[in-house]
């Protein structure tokens, strides 16, 4: 099997799964529908594994030509290099686990086949995004995941009590994504204008060779392109200013939150910036901007998460905060480190979301942690895996999260110690809110209704097996990029592995001094364990309960009200837009357009009425007109034959 | 007798000095009077009669040109025009009687069912 | 000389009686005036030595067709009050249109160049005599002659069919 055949199979598998489920899903039994949906993703995972094994050099496969003009060509071509294979592994691997989870979680839902259709479609679009070899295919996948995100967030749009809220959340996600997409389109136009091509490797080579008009360090053109690209990244990866859709997107089913809003779609922005590293390296100003936005986002989201009481909302803000951390890594130029954190984050965030799904399932749909408590005895597997995820995200030593965060913090310390302090504060906050979530959910006394208590149960195997797999990955995922101080030969394996992507090979990694690394690691470990102990004391020993909304004041009030971001956007953007729409409707639509169009019809009708009076049925009048016509004819004959002297 | 008349006529013809222009204007005038009558009169019978007047004007023109060129074809044409006028008058009058039975009047302006 | 004067006189009289046809209020008088017009026109034909046509004009037109008109007029039994009156505006418009028409015709016809440009008639020949006309009719134009018989048949059948009394309309 040649590489191109395998690639086509890889792309067609999720697409065919989507088509089969979409067209026939209603008529086949649920188990087959879910089985097909999961099987195609599992097969895709196997194909990507084979790529992983075989491919050492980047391979470019062109399938057909899309646009052919004198100025430029755009092909439907795919670049299989280490970066795309790695992303594809994450997508298909975690995708398979989430599909298995969904088979159990969504088993009572009547839109079962639709769910798998959309999930498969999403995987297809995401694969297009990461495998494309030019910005055009990337954009295609970009839009595709946006659409699938919309469809999946608003999946329960006909729910009697929450249907409208779901649809509004889906619309919000879509609109905010769209704003980012505008940035991407504009960037593509600029790139096309400057380089006359959209292929990553060609542009990278052109940048390396140099000599193109306007392409120089910190030139206006480069800053424009990179800032537009980053605008798109803020839309997809939920950074300031376009992050408020992500918490609302928790209105979708939990597997959706796990797959799309933890592991894959939100990392599309990170991936895109990594792919465009050769452009960002030419615009250090943009990298500064990215750095500060990442720090700000991380801090703001962590602050808001401190007093959220919905289990999924806490995790959503946690995602935004972790994405901020990844963006910090991008701003520092440490692209492979960002991808490392993407990987570990995919592991533990998917684990946490699936765990929360298991909790919600066991609590018959309850999502407020103030009504939970003491679940560790009722749901042991969920409890252990959730604990592992929480430890990993807070940077508990030797788990995967610890290593990836430490890399980022290490680079940041070398660049800017002040920001390092800010990020450490954000890390502490992360630990606090995550442990708060864990302790309030699984420890203490049960605070729910007796009905929930009677029905509380551990989830079936189809849901717990993915949890266990992800937990193992969260524990041991750190080996992918161990720092040089633990092992000599395989150190920073992921960094080296990814370094052969276009552009990334030019980036020089400086290893920090061993002393600094040890020091930073020590600081991180101490803070992490310290937070764990404080949280244990606070929430278990002192049994501090989460306050009801009315009793919060001061910073707690600000935190639980999400720092009033949504309200601010509503006043700044939504209201003026609605006002404009109203005005346009009244003035332009009703007066101008209606008057124009209907007026045209009225004029025609009136004119017709007048002309109608000519036909009065009287022979004499007809004869009169005939005579007149005859006179006209003769006169015209005369005029023609007159000699104009 | 015939020869005598012929001689007289030939004598008259040799001194004839009437222009073709006169006959053209005369025929045009008669034709216009007929057209005027068609436009003016509302009595159906008089309408048909004015049409006959127009036909006669044309006949006059034809005959004058036939004499002018010495060609007999135009007079044959006049013959056939008279034939057709006879047939047309017949049928026209029977239609008129039919219409009279419907409307009890011979006013042309009452025939306006095609109005609007 | 005399012929010219007679021709012009006949022409003027024909015009006058044609005007009376159009203008007279009584329909029977219109018919009679038309008969008189036909006589004058036949007179003109005789002046041009179209003898056959002159006689045919009298016999067929004035004799048969006008009598037919008279019969229909008498059949309808209308009196003077039933004559429809046309409004003044129509008079004005029609007069103007008619006058315009006449002017335009004259203007169109005045400058035409005839092939045989002659100041007066050629010798008034004998082509209008019965024998010569009959010769042309039955040799050159015999087919239209036969076809006209079909025309007459269809006109007769049509007229009878149309004027037949239906069972429904009771007069």
Strand proportion of chain C, as a percent range, falls in under 5%
Shape of chain B: elongated
Q: Which series of helices and strands of chain C comes N to C?
A: HHHHHH
Distance between the termini of chain B: 66 Å
Instruction: Describe the global form of chain C.
Output: globular
In CATH, what is the class of chain B?
Mainly Alpha
Structural class of chain B: mainly alpha
Report the oligomer: heterotrimer
SSE topology sketch:
The complex is a heterotrimer of chains A (645), B (116) and C (171).
Chain A lengths: L2 H22 L5 H25 L4 E10 L4 E8 L1 H24 L6 H20 L3 H19 L9 H33 L4 H10 L10 H17 L8 H4 L5 H10 L4 H8 L1 H4 L3 H22 L5 H21 L3 H28 L17 H14 L6 H16 L1 H26 L7 H6 L5 H16 L16 H6 L15 H28 L13 H6 L4 H48 L6 H23 L4
Antiparallel strand pairs in A: 1-2
Helix pairs in contact in A: 1-2, 1-4, 2-3, 2-4, 3-4, 3-10, 3-15, 3-20, 4-5, 5-6, 6-8, 8-11, 8-13, 10-15, 11-15, 13-14, 13-18, 14-15, 14-17, 14-18, 15-16, 15-17, 15-20, 16-18, 16-20, 17-18, 17-22, 18-22
Chain B lengths: L1 H13 L5 H21 L3 H26 L3 H31 L13
Helix pairs in contact in B: 2-3, 3-4
Chain C lengths: L1 H22 L3 H21 L3 H26 L11 H23 L19 H10 L2 H22 L8
Helix pairs in contact in C: 1-2, 2-3
